[in-house]
Here is the input.
Amino acid sequence: MNKIVLATSLCIAIAALGGCTNKSVVRYGDATAVETTDINFGSTDLQKVASQMTDSLLLSPVVGTLTANTRPIIFVESIKNKTSEHIDTESITDSISTKLLRSGKFRFVDMGRVAAVREQLEFQQSSGMVDASKAIAFGQQVGAQYMLYGNLASIVKSNKDKSDVYYKFTMRLMDLKSGLVEWADETEIRKTKEKEFVSW
Amino acid sequence: MNHKSRTILALIVGTFLLSACQNIAPVTSGVGSNQIAPEQAFSEHLHIDNKQLASKLYISDIKSRTNNGLLEVNAILTSTYKKSLQLQYQFQWFDQDGFAIEVGKSPWKALELHGMQTATATGLAPSNKASTFSIYVREVPEKFFKF
Here is the structure.
């Protein structure tokens, strides 16, 4: 009888543990959901930073005055990454400039595409393939009035049980004519990773 | 150990192991509101999809105003739970015809609400077309497996 009981237990155990095999499953997820895969800078951090900076800029009384009767022209300088991680800061500036542009309150010039624009205008002017009366001439573009720039810094601390990372993202809007900083704000993110006891 | 004890032990071990490695779908329901216009009373538009979360958290106030031409909303979240809650909230924006604006682009924002704490969830409409809004709050689903 003892053997039967033991054998039954073993069978149940094997059957139950058999359910624990790994299998890969592919799913589409919510791109806007909170992501906590690891402690590094992730999509949720990017979305939070872009959202908070855009909201702060759009709610600023100074910006309210600037955008009351006109849509100021902005150029976005790259965000300086002062963290120890590799972070695509262009993606942050892309999100912020897209949100600001879609708000209908600002216009942007894209300095990242100057070479491509020059090439296209040179083609229109000198290739002989474009109707000269309709070719776009050099020297007609509008310059930016304001510059948006910022820094992303981090402080990382860890011990054997816990890791802590603190991000600070700072942005400023400068009037290119006067050199005055018209708006500035910063947002912070704290992420921690610690061991948790597995509970049944 | 007698025969009866061994049988019971075997049953316990079997049951224990059968409960192992369940792949459980995370609970993603929460508490929220239907579309609210700035002039409407928020309390009539709240709904509860997750009673467990509603026993620990409630939306105590929602204020809205137009700032720089954009609809700005503050929702006050109050915890009635002694431990911290890992929450995420999302605003949705609608134009005057009830059509959603910038669908799928409003991110879920993470919010840690400490025991019995009150915090403000803030939202700003992405464009001046927004005339009504809704909010939804849920817990961050973290554990997909249990043993």
Q: What stands out?
A: The mean pLDDT of chain B is 86. The helical segments of chain B are 3-18, 51-54. Residues 3-146 of chain B form a domain with the Immunoglobulin-like fold (CATH 2.60.40.3230). Chain B has two helices and eleven strands.
